[in-house]
Write a structure and sequence with these properties.
Elements: H1 8-15, E1 32-35, H2 51-67, E2 71-72, E3 79-89, E4 93-96, H3 106-119, E5 128-138, E6 143-153, H4 160-179
Parallel strand pairs: 1-2, 1-3
Antiparallel strand pairs: 3-4, 3-5, 5-6
Helix pairs in contact: 1-3, 2-4
């Protein structure tokens, strides 16, 4: 996936929608984290559903937590990390929320992305864009502590190494405010 900031239509979608919660908490006081789900069972043939893409995303997230001194993977972790993928063209919006868990506005995010990015779209060209939305929850309260996202154009024919570099970069950008002192 190629993500370049800003991809205006999706950026405005999430940041400009008052009904979608966008808390900007920090990692301060937490020492452990885990994913809501780690199985790579989904295989519909779409890029965003491939095990390789999810392995790349999860590897990048684990790496960022490790770099910032937060142990990752314990079942009794203090934080739960989830993510959702949005894919959008000039005619449709789809989401993959297999690794997003339940609740927390997934349908609202997709509906708002579709309304603003497809229905109200003024772009004259065809496009294929995507977004990664990362949520971090406090495991003891299930409270959403942090949400951030990044958007950009989708590139499907990348070799695994180039894909991992792109995913690492975008995950680092998404999580940077969470780890900021």
């Amino acid at each position: 996936m190629k993500f370049t900031l800003p991809a205006l239509f999706l950026t405005v979608v999430l940041s400009g929608c008052s009904s979608i919660d966008m808390p900007q908490g920090s990692s301060e006081g937490y020492s452990t984290a885990r994913f809501v789900k780690t199985s790579y069972a989904t295989q519909t043939g779409d890029l965003e559903d491939s095990p390789e893409v999810h392995q790349a995303i999860q590897g990048a997230i684990k790496s960022q937590f490790g770099v910032h001194g937060i142990a990752f993977g314990q079942p009794t972790a203090q934080l739960i990390v989830t993510y959702m993928l949005i894919r959008q063209s000039n005619v449709s919006t789809t989401i993959n929320r297999d690794y997003f868990g339940q609740g927390r506005d997934a349908s609202e995010i997709m509906d708002e992305a579709h309304r603003r990015g497809v229905i109200e779209n003024k772009r004259p060209d065809e496009f294929d864009a995507g977004a990664i939305v990362i949520d971090i929850l406090d495991a003891s309260t299930n409270e959403l502590v942090f949400r951030n996202f990044a958007t950009g154009d989708v590139m499907e024919n990348l070799d695994p190494a180039a894909r991992q570099v792109r995913v690492n970069t975008i995950v680092r950008e998404i999580l940077e405010p969470f780890f900021a002192p």
